[in-house]
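Homework help board

Subject: predicted structure for assignment chain

Our instructor gave us this sequence and asked us to write out the predicted structure in token form, then describe one feature. I got the tokens but I'm not sure how to describe them. Can anyone check?
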Amino acid sequence: MKVPIKFAVIGLGHIGKRHAEMISRHADSKLVSICDIDKENNLAAYNVPLFDNLEQLLLSSPEFDVLSIATPNGSHASIAIKALSAGKHVIIEKPMALNSQDAQDIIDQADRNKKKVFCVMQNRYSPPSKWIKSILDQGILGDVYSVQINCYWNRDERYYTGKNWRGDLAQDGGTLFTQFSHFIDMMFWLFGDITNIQSRFNDFNHKNLSDFEDSGIIQFDFLNGGMGSINYSTSVWDTNMESSISIIGENGSVKIGGQYMNEIEYCHIKNYEMPVLEKSSPANDYGTYKGSAANHHFVYQNVLDVLINDMEIDTNAKDGFKVVEIIERIYNGNPYLKIKK
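My token output:
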């Protein structure tokens, strides 16, 4: 594909601005258009054509190669399908969709149009993530017996109050989709699919803030052997507490912790010396709230490597589908998912 690769961004909220920054920063990519419904959203600062609807963007000049989708969750699938139909590659912020049928429709449309789908799961690029993936792939831990994932964050009225899509079931999807799908992806990437799922949910202090649960406990078995659990909450007071994964294996144990699963807190493995890792990127800073690691530059480097040098996609559409499908199975029967009348 001809360099520079031309990009458009749809949705210029906190994360959309980060996409625009990553595109503008690289010599092999060029930001040529922006689309956002909010005309007061500082769009003029980017000095590119501005559009307030997808149809106009897709018919626009200059033409572009890739659409970066950073809109509310509930619109990801429909935008991706329209863009793929128009002959564009797409980058989709997490989650890929809010149900597995929509995710499959994206895959089918990409196949029909022979276009690429890149799913944004940037936590895979952090040094602790790459390290644990390496030692698992090498079999250094031996058989994996038990995996525990803890995600304890703060999302209170400061996050949900205001004219936005957060907390609305049709646009947000639920706590696992918006807050913690990165860690479902990490689990699937490291250990594979799960079965025998047992889930418990509660809504402790978000009854007037969102249409869904704020806390959950999930237990399951891995198809590849071993058992696991996910414990999560957005009811932590004032600020995020931790995102961690603890692994008990045949040859040792590891815990990756910190607020964003960005620190090695424990490593004790038979006949193994822990290497010195690169420093993790800081979390994305959205003012009051911080989220996952700020690794979008790795995402865009992979996009360029794939489109220019025909390399492999790091987080492809099938991976994005599995994250959606696993969350869908976890949520099956969740009494706290409340459709607004």
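Reply (TA_rk): Your tokens look well-formed. For the description, you could write something like this. The CA atoms of residues 285 and 291 lie 7 Å apart. That's the kind of observation they're looking for.
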